[in-house]
Amino acid sequence: MKNFNFTRISAVIIFFTMITSFSIAQSWQIQNSNTSVQLKGIQMISVTEGWACGDAGAILHTIDAGNTWSLVTLTGSDLHQIVFKDASTGIVVGDNGTVFTTTNGGTNWISKNSSTSLQLRGAGFAGGSTFFAVGDDGAAVKSTDNGNTWTTLNSGTSERLLCVAAVDQSVWVGARNGLMLFSSNGGTSFTSMSNPATDDIKDIQFIDGSIGFAGGSNSFFMYTSNGGANWTSRSTGIQVGLNGLHFVNQNEGWVVGGAGTLYSTTNAGLNWIVLQSQTGQDLNSIHSVDGANAWAVGNLGVIVTNYSPPTNVENENSVAPNTLVLEQNYPNPFNPLTKIKFSVPERSNTIIKVYNTVGSEVATLLNEVKQPGTYEVDFNAADLSSGAYFYSMETDNFREVKKMILIK
Description:
The chain is mainly β. The chain has two domains: 29-305, 7 Propeller (Methylamine Dehydrogenase, Chain H); 313-406, Macroglobulin (MG2) domain (Immunoglobulin-like), CATH 2.60.40. It has no helices and 38 strands. The strands form ten sheets. The chain has a four-stranded antiparallel sheet with strand order 3-30-29-28, with no helix packed on it.
């Protein structure tokens, strides 16, 4: 899941909180998944690249925001959850203890011994190189080397475990019949956690070690601000059982459920907005990387999204540069249009944002995986006042900030 960290812009010696702007697009549409199997998990790597998994070993991949989805079959076993820690490294888990890993962005998937033959229904990334997976009959396993090897954990229960979230050494597990487990020591031991749920807890997410959300059967949704020591129900307005949820920060997110149910919230579930998903199929999982564009998957291969394609990024040439470069915008000063040129030497998720002088984000110009090349992105500051602004470029291994001047 996406974490939001306090970040230092050393170039201008100011501090600010990275804020993802959340917009609720009301126009959702169905995409062609090229399959009719039940899809159970999805994770977007960027606004344009994402992965989904489902029954009969189906793995789906898109690099064009879902305009096309490619389908491969890894196994005959149903796959339940797919989790990437970055654009290169991810895992997928499923029936019969199935675990596949990739370290090259899905070019190759390698079967691994999960140390269990039981169904694995949920998986989560804890940070570093650590993944967890849980499943039937209390099955719980852990990997500390990006899914290459797995060890069995003692969950202390034989109940069916459905979902897992982890932040460093803290691990939360949702199960059938309202059971929630917690570990403060990386899964060495688990204790039962009191909560309002009386039915299956189907999905759980923690933004950090304190703020968390969970949802499931019987139309329940609950919230915690103290690491799960106390949970409060925030289900008012939800009419259908929930299967999946995703939050981009401590307030803004979506939930999905039966019969095409799709809700959004901007205040951590205190209020819910009904969205039209354009499908009557059950939706099982939803994900977003930027808070504006989201994708949800469900039964009979359904994929729905509210994605709106950007129109301001141009590929200048196809020659791979040698280094990562963020150039000075031009013209500079500008009014109100300017261009920002940048180069990436290898495939990487690339984020370009604009901030004002107090560190508040005013625009996200790019958030997607770019192939090697040199690009330009346009910035229109027509709605901003004159003054100094800063723009940043981030990849997995690079960050740079530059200053620009708007004069009107």
